[in-house]
Each structure stands twice: as C-alpha cells, then as structure tokens.
Write a structure and sequence with these properties.
Helix content: 25-40%
Number of strands: 19
Structural class: alpha/beta
Strand content: 15-25%
Number of helices: 21
Strand order of the largest sheet: 12-15-18-11-19
Distance between the termini: 84 Å
Shape: elongated
Length: 507
C-alpha cells in the first residue's frame, strides 16, 4: 500500500468540519510535504511525527511523502493532526493495518517520545463525530471533557503505541466513563451579605427573573460590585443543554476541563482596559471572547464609561441577537453569546455627585462628557438602570434581616416557570410581534404608557423593554396581566431616561 487515509476534524467556531488525512508514500528523493492550507503548527508536525515514529521503534519510510488535508480550501491549525498523520504514514508503508480505523477519528499532538498531548476544542469535535456515528480516539487527558457529550463513542490513549496496538487488534483502548450527571453548582456569594439597598435588590431580582440587562449607578463603595457578584446565585439552575454549550465554548479556548465548572453559570468580569477583540472574540484564528465565555451566565462590566468606545459598541448586536459573527479575510466563525449584562458606573467623574461632604466639583459639562462615553443606542439596549446610593454607617451596622439568595432564587424560578409555560422563553426574549399577546395593556395602563413615552422620550426599543420588564414584575407577583402598579415600577427602573439626575418624572 502506498496510499492511506485517516479521519479527523478541525474546529471552525462551534462547528468541526471533517478532514480526510491522505498520505502517499512514493519513490523519489526523500521529502515530506503537507498540503491543504496548513498553518505553522500543522507544518511543524512533520518533525514531531518523524521523531515520534523513530522513538517508538517504527521505520520512517524513505522516499517522497505527501500529506493532503482535505478539503484543501479549509484552513487547518493546531497539533491535533499529528496522530492521524503518523497513523496514516504507517498504514501507507504497510507497517500497520487500517481495517479497524474505517470509521474512527483520530486526534492528538505527539511529543517526540510518542506521548499524546491534549488538544483544544474537543467538545464541539465530539458533538459532530457523534452525529456522524464515528468512534473517537483522543488523548487520555481529554477523555473526561469529551465524555460530557452523551452518546459519544470515545477511546482514550496516553501513548502512540497504544493506538498502534488498537489498530492491530492486540489490545483495546479504555472507554470513556459515562457523562457526569448535572448536579447543583458550588455555593455562590449570598445576597444576605448586602446591607440595605432594597431598591437595588429588587432590581436585581427583576433582572434575574426576566433575564434583563441591568446598569447600576452609584458612588464608589455603595455595593454595586457586591450586587453584581450575587446575581449568578439567584439565577435558575442550568439545563443540561445550556451546561454543554457553555462547556463547549470553554473547550475552544484551550482551558483544561474542570468538573466544578460543569452546570455553574459563569461570571465574567473583564477589566475596563480590555479591547473589543477580547470582549467579542476574534484574532487571526477566531477565538471566543468574554461575551461568549459568559454564555448562559453573567457579564459584569465595572466602570462602564472607562471601556473603549469601540469595545462597548461591539456589544450592541450580541445583546439583541445572542450571537457574534467574527469575520476575517480567510476565516469566518460564529459563537453563541446569550449573556446577561450587568454594568456599573459612577454618577459623575469623581463618583460623589451631590455629596456635600465629598466636595464634588464636577460641572454639568464634565458630567455630560462622562456619560456621553456610553452611546445612546447601547443605553437603549439596557433594560434597567437604577441608582445605588451610598449607605449611612447605621445601616451597615445592622444585623442582616433580608432575604437570602435561596429565598430570592425560589421566587425567580417560579417567575421563570410562568414565562416558559406562557411563551417558551424568558420575558427579555419575547419577539416584538408577540408583545401584544403576552404584554397586553388595559386602558389605564395604555394612558400611563403614553404619558411615560412623551415625558421620557422613549424610543420604540425603550418602549418595548419597559413592557417586557413590566411583564416580569407581574410574573414575580403571580399576576395574570400587567397592572398600572407593575407598569409604573418598570418605568421607574429606567433612571437614565429621566431628564435630571435623581429626578423622578411625574407621569
């Protein structure tokens, strides 16, 4: 045999197209070439493969060796092709039979001694291989992660010789363990730690119940970060599908699998110096950014006006669609980004607006410039924006007597159940065409909404977001329809739509 073929895949966003690794061993001067748009790490595999075969007591064939990674127009990257290339070379040089590898996909980077090193993106790979009903042979270090894909046929190997023995039928590779059952996540920071702030706690509960985005405005030390960090603890448990999607995105970043992260909603808090690519993803080889790592979790942007304008504007489309498409000259990738945004900012540049003891000297022009760093279209996409005032010492010294995260989470879960039974999604995701059916207003509510729209100059998007928030408030109260009280509370939760700082409009 001079021609042999093995199967593998290359990650392309959340997909993993099949790659046929074809090896031809011919006569001629000794050369080793790899074709099919290989990147540097793939081209370097010829040196790793040559050394691994020699150190595993195999004969490296003399002559012209050509490796084709088909389809030829699909970019290939990473060391995952070392194992299929090495096995195909042995098959083409009649050192290894190939009958047992017809429907087997091979993955693994080879060390010079033949050990199999872990690869990134094994979960999307396992998902597509399972759909094709193929057996996967992967490095032993990736087995626990790949086993999250239920129904996958997985075999783990720690060394190149184990795969060769498997191909010969001498020994069997160890099968992966069953996928772990979804279990409760580790304890989260508790909401009872937050003293006072009943208005902000109420807004946090509404945001959790309807999956609404939230902006917290207050001076330094008022508790904005504490509130944001406790949002994951009151969100409903993740479904198995959501947990798998979040784990698959983490797999694409190359992070090692951690069992304590399975089923736990992520909380991502990037620094305000982060670039747009760090937030939304990108690079010459597209990788997921912070918004995708926060998929089905919370993205917390502290000091919101300090982020670059380009980074903030890049959030507008994902907030609406739950997806981010990354396009480069030779590559395109799409990553899910259904995250819950929580942002925090100061009321003015010094952070102490209206506090006579802090001697705030911020002029109206400085305040306007500070707030103008956040564009109107982005603010319009944030459902709730509220004040978080500084607390007096006597409030901070009181013993806790408020609801715990477990108490709030129970109410949030009940409200979520009502939403899913009614429309099949959370209130923040109700399509515009379905608002009239699920957020219907009576005459009194319609009159209130008309006055609010004129007084606050609400845009069409802002109008719809008020309706969705009011529907969530009604669900928390167990009410079948929106009442004027629910609607008035939803209107009051949009602070930045008011004309003056701290001014409550009379409607």
């Amino acid at each position: 045999m001079t021609l042999a073929t093995t199967l593998s895949r290359t990650p392309q966003g959340m997909s993993a197209p099949l790659v046929r690794v074809e090896v031809d061993v011919g006569s001629g001067l000794p050369t080793f070439s790899i074709v099919g748009l290989p990147e540097t790490a793939v081209r370097e595999s010829k040196d790793r493969v040559r050394a691994a075969l020699a150190n595993c007591s195999f004969h490296f064939p003399e002559g012209r060796i050509t490796v084709s990674l088909a389809p030829a127009d699909l970019p290939k990257e990473g060391g995952r092709f070392d194992l299929p290339i090495a096995i195909a070379i042995l098959m083409a040089s009649d050192q290894l039979p190939g009958e047992r590898l017809d429907r087997v996909e091979l993955y693994g980077e080879l060390s010079l001694g033949g050990e199999l090193q872990p690869i990134r993106g094994v979960l999307p790979t396992a998902m597509h291989a399972t759909r094709a009903q193929h057996l996967l042979v992967i490095p032993a270090a990736n087995v626990d992660e790949a086993s999250l894909m239920r129904g996958a046929q997985i075999r783990g190997a720690a060394h190149f010789r184990e795969v060769c023995d498997f191909a010969r039928g001498l020994t069997g590779l160890s099968a992966a363990r069953a996928a772990p059952a979804l279990r409760p996540p580790p304890p989260q920071p508790d909401l009872i730690d937050v003293r006072g702030q009943p208005y902000a706690r109420r807004a946090l509960e509404i945001a959790a119940a309807g999956e609404h985005s939230l902006l917290l405005i207050g001076p330094p030390g008022a508790g904005k970060s504490m509130l944001a960090q406790r949002l994951p603890g009151i969100l409903p448990p993740m479904s198995e599908e959501e947990a798998f999607e979040a784990a698959a995105i983490r797999s694409l970043t190359g992070r090692s699998h951690r069992t304590d992260e399975w089923g736990r909603r992520s909380f991502r808090a990037p620094h305000h110096s982060s670039s747009a690519i760090a937030l939304v993803g990108g690079g010459s080889v597209p990788r997921p950014g912070e918004i995708s790592l926060a998929h089905h979790g919370v993205l917390f942007l502290d000091e919101l006006p300090e982020f670059s304008r380009s980074a903030l504007e890049a959030l507008r489309e994902p907030l609406e669609t739950g997806l981010i498409a990354v396009s480069r000259a030779a590559r395109q990738a799409e990553f899910p980004a259904r995250f819950q945004l929580v942002a925090a900012m100061n009321p003015c540049p010094c952070g102490h607006l209206g506090d006579p003891k802090a001697l705030c000297r911020c002029t109206r022009d400085r305040i306007d410039r500070y707030r103008s760093r956040i564009s109107g279209p982005l603010l319009d996409r944030i459902d709730l924006h509220i004040d978080v005032p500084r607390l007096p010492p006597e409030v901070l010294q009181r013993p806790p007597n408020q609801d715990t995260s477990a108490d709030v989470a129970a109410r949030v879960l009940a409200a979520r159940d009502r939403q899913l039974q009614r429309q099949g999604c959370t209130n923040s995701l109700i399509p515009v065409q379905a608002l009239s059916a699920h957020c219907a207003l009576d005459k009194e509510c319609m009159a209130l909404m008309q006055r609010a729209t004129k007084r606050l100059a609400l845009s069409g998007r802002g109008y719809h977001r008020v309706l969705r928030a009011a529907r969530t408030i009604a669900d928390l109260a167990g009410a079948p329809s929106i009442s004027p009280r629910h609607l008035a509370e939803a209107i009051g939760l949009r602070h930045l739509d008011r004309r003056g700082v701290g001014e409550t409009p009379s409607i």
